[in-house]
Amino acid sequence: MAWFRKEGTDRGAAASDLDVHPLQQVTDLERALADRQALIRMCLYAMDRARSGGVVERLEEGLAAIGVQALRPDGERFDPARHEAGGAVPTEDPALDGIVAETEVTGFADHDHLLRAPIVTVYAKKSP
Description:
With 128 residues, the protein is an alpha+beta fold.
């Protein structure tokens, strides 16, 4: 298998038609994926430190455009596999027991892969 085309052997061949070594393709893909992960981590780092709501919103929109979704499970049932409990709010309403009252720290998922669990406050039934 030729890893390159010799000049004059294929009339009219465009630069995009050149053979690329299969191992180079894998390396390029792995590098692109690693770069994507690094950029996502940097965006999350910047969001955590941003003082401007507009900057946070713009970063969140950009991440959403590539499949990274913010997780704010307010009103959902607490799930320790997807949420981290940061605190509890007492309630006398049994229907609220175990429901996320608010998100303290936004979580993120890259498509179906959890990057960071949201830290939440959960309603807990008041003891008599």
